[in-house]
Amino acid sequence: SAGAPAGSTSLSFGRDELVTVRAEPVQDLTGSSGFTGSRVERKTRRTYSVENRHKTAITLQVLHAAPVSRNEKIEVESRYQPQPSDTAWNRTPGTVSWQQSVATGGTAQFSAEHTIRYPKDVELIERQ
Length: 128
Known about the structure:
This protein has strands at 19-23, 27-33, 39-52, 58-65, 75-81, 95-102, 107-119. The chain is an all-beta fold.
């Protein structure tokens, strides 16, 4: 695939019953900031947990859609745990990628926290 390292191939054969993925509901906190409440600050947090129930270690790739501002008045600050291997996966801004090995019986945790700040008079249009 286009995002795979040279000399490797990415194949998908459907759901893997021995890998459990849990995406926690998005935590969404919105509030006003500034001296007169003239700015809106929205913070979202998303966490993922992946459990390997295979008898061998696996290498997995987790993709996450991050907000991208197209307006200079809208500020986006993102924090990730652990640091992603790519913040523009497949040369796509806003597509974050983690890639790591998970030991037999092991669990990997990933989290993304985004803070979006913008003036109260700016309309925020979100595309999914």
